[in-house]
Design brief:
Layout: E1 5-10, H1 14-24, E2 30-36, H2 39-48, E3 53-56, H3 69-79, E4 84-89, H4 94-102, E5 105-110, H5 117-125, E6 132-133, H6 156-166, H7 171-178, H8 182-196, H9 201-210
Parallel strand pairs: 1-2, 1-3, 3-4, 4-5, 5-6
Helix pairs in contact: 6-8, 6-9, 7-8
């Protein structure tokens, strides 16, 4: 038997981690060697034992997930450029998912698609160079204008601030999670609202819900 590709899995839901382990347990091509429940643990696991593939969600709900979203993707891309990243996510915002590909993500699988899609994504990225999208996300391959996709004109940092603020985090908590000043976070929130033509926090939260940011 040829050597198998090593895999790290990361999710804050025990059921997801268990399902992934069961899914890959009979694979002759892939073997899971690391698992983590938050971004901090994920980076530590990879620093200790780098794997060929990383399967993680865009956003993890764990209180320990201070390294999350685009911050996590940037860290993965800069620290472990050789690791192929698969997003296994319930995130639905097209702007966020497309920007994720700019940070080196090679496959995006929706948690609403068939379980087997995760294995198919791994098979794709070790043999081909283009991005893999599971069936319900195939529309991401279609080029769109910025005007037709709400949120695409926001920077990744602005999108992240909007997502976290609308999820209930205060500006101080976001600043702490992102290792930035409150002033910087406040400015990014203001700029995002200005770009979107939104004038109140209630409108911003409604926008986040409507666009699938949370």
């Amino acid at each position: 038997m040829c050597n198998r590709y090593s895999v790290t899995i990361s999710d804050d839901h025990p059921h997801i981690l268990y399902s992934l382990k069961m899914l890959f347990s009979t694979s002759e091509k892939f073997i899971i060697v690391n698992e983590a429940i938050c971004g901090k643990d994920l980076l530590a696991a990879l620093a200790s034992r780098l794997t060929d593939i990383v399967i993680t969600d865009f956003s993890l709900g764990s209180e320990r997930s201070t390294i999350d979203g685009f911050t996590k993707l940037r860290a993965l891309s800069s620290r472990f450029p050789d690791a192929r990243v698969v997003l296994l996510t319930s995130q639905k915002n097209a702007a966020i998912l497309r920007k994720a590909c700019d940070y080196g993500v090679m496959a995006i699988v929706s948690k609403s698609d068939a379980v087997s899609e995760t294995v198919l994504a791994c098979q794709h990225i070790v043999s081909q160079s283009d991005c893999y999208f599971s069936p319900s996300l195939r529309y991401l391959k279609i080029p769109v204008s910025k005007k037709s996709e709400r949120g695409s004109d926001l920077t990744p940092k602005e999108l992240e601030v909007v997502r976290l603020f609308s999820s209930g985090y205060s500006l101080a908590e976001i600043a702490r999670r992102q290792n930035r000043t409150i002033s910087t976070i406040s400015t990014q929130k203001y700029n995002a609202m200005r770009r979107l033509g939104i004038s109140s926090n209630v409108e911003l939260i409604r926008y986040a819900y409507a666009q699938g940011l949370i």
